[in-house]
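G., the chain you wanted modeled:
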Amino acid sequence: MNQKAFLVGADLGNLSGANFSDHMQELELLSKTAGYDIVKVLSQKVSKINSSLYLGSGKVDEILNLAKYHNVKYLIFDNELTPAQSKNINKKYKKITVIDRADLILQIFMKHAKTRESKVQVELAQLQYLLPRLTRAWTHLERQMGGIGSRAGAGETQIEVDRRLLRDRISKLRNELTKIEKNRITRTKKRVNSYKVALVGYTNAGKSTLMKSISGADVLIKDQLFATLDTTVRSVNLDKYNTILLSDTVGFVRKLPHHLVASFKSTLNEVVDADLILIVLDSSSDQVIEHYKVIKEVLNNLNANTNDYIVVLNKIDQTENHKKIQKLNFEFPNAIFISALNSLRIEELKLKIVEFMEKNYKTVNLKLPYSNSKNISLIQNSTFVISRKYKDEYLHIKAKGPIGKIDSLLKLLSK
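Predicted structure as tokens:
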């Protein structure tokens, strides 16, 4: 199957040459992850985006002529195109398939969705994307979805039928996601007394590797964008007394389509509900500061911008430039530099997490009768016991633990 593609970008001059090149390199990595064979990377310097064709008419004609010459079937654009832009480009050359960044990311998500939840989320985002773009030109999306409606009749009437079917399907998917979200809330309630830590970061920053390094759990690790879409949660003993629930979430990327973020909101609620967020950055990347801004923007959109967080600069073993390290120290004065792959400074990170946990701990003095061995055992096994004093009839225990857990225990003891 011919998967030959051109990458197309508009250089608006608001980025340095290096940054624009980095954006196009990311688009290339996304395209390769989706399975396309990149033939050329093409761009045009413009003062503003052309409302009808994205680029200038002459440049679009030049690109389409090159596509004919190289037998290229796909044009992949670095921005989300309007339905009109896509339609107008396709009118010029009907054998070309126009794919924008949002569509490309959706294709990758569709390939990697494994659980029912992620499949529903991806399909919902894809249908919301497709609805305003529904024409005969978008057959590549139709194929991915397994067909929309009957194609016996052509023209506006058939498109309207398809749109109605899409709206019905979108409604059903939203209802299904609501049920999934209720189940998630039920599971979350059971973990209310646990200290929750969420890993967030730019895709390919090493979150899954860090998850494995901290927890020792066997998690999927691939040098690929969006290798997994499903949240992984593991219980991790940081030391003898401190246990956390550590979750790894879907990676972020520039210009992540807003409808995709909305569809994956239930998955990303692991971040919203977290007591502590670990923002994982690739310290070897030249765009690490920009990546941090992208992450903070997504956290802000999720209303998770007030959560406690630690900046974790990963892949320090790949960063040999001392001036760059000094600059990162200046930009992120409280960050921890690690190598998740080589388990370098992971213990220091664990200690830092414990520091944050201490802020959310509560210390209590308890007077427990020896006759109630069950409660004594419960306290000793589920809290950090600071001291014990044995009196004639009572055991005096000074203990500390997460506020939620201590309050639950006190409520239990009062019965």
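The two ends are 69 Å apart (CA to CA).

Shout if anything looks off.
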